[in-house]
Amino acid sequence: MQRSGRITLMPSRKRKYRVDLVIPVYNEAEALEKAYAQICGVVDKLPHEFRFIYVNDGSDDGTEESLASVRQIDRRVTALSLSTNFGHQAALTAGLDHSTGDIVITMDGDGQHPPEMIPQMIELIAQGYDIVQGQRAEEARPSFFKKFTSDTFYKFINAVSGTQMVAGAADFRALNRQAVDALKAMPEYHRFLRGMISWIGYRSVILPYHQPARIAGHSKYSVGKMFRLASDAIFSFSLIPLYIGLSSGLLFFALALIQLSWVFWLAISKNTEHVIAPGWSSLMAVMLIASGIIMILLGFIGVYVGYIFQEVKRRPIYLLKKEG
Predict the structure, then answer these.
(1) Which of 20, 33, 53, 124 could be 101's S-S partner, Cβ–Cβ 3.0 to 4.6 Å?
(2) pTM of the full predicted structure?
């Protein structure tokens, strides 16, 4: 994936594209109509044919009514309502599955993905890029905790997997039809779209942006949801946890062989200077450490088995309640 702090747009051949905007929303009744108006203020000036695909991810606050209001005034709006809250990645998947445009742009419905970047994204796709990945500028990541955990996660996942992912990358991106079809061919249940998009290996470019404040409400990404997303990423893209457990087991096996060799040498040499005294504390320490490693390894195996179990059931990633 190309990295660039400054994108130079080259003149491209003018073409009218069909552009789908995939916008997942969850309890965004306060922000939805304002964010929609901001997007319209940009896309209505462009010569392309736009379609809005809103995915209501099981909201319970009046988001559905706000979507109905928007649909009444704009025939370009399609509203997909999921039967329950399946999560952000599943909602994005639902929107991608229902997209038909030449270009698909995914963005949040809270106003933090600036619609002013849409023309640049379309222009870069027109120049031949398959994927235009939005990347938050450093100053747009306000929380030290969130910045630290995000940077640590991306360093770790890049080190343990064969897929390189960009720190600060958001689910604000543009994809051409080929890239969308490649994602749709990956029906895995535990989805980490940022990793999946990096994995497909199509020609990509980074487009930095400054993240504005939310229009209203608060972030729905709790610490628990971030942890589950990180877990999906690690266990979906790497077998390193299993290798860590295996390496720890081999280390203790080697230490045990050294201990046995030492005891055997004392026995055959009849060395009276060394006394093998029973040591309760050292024995318990070794047992606890070894048992802990075994439990950690069994936990890792259990997680992988659980992922396999959920995959082989072949349950759908999401269920639609209503489409309109």
Answers:
(1) 20
(2) 0.70
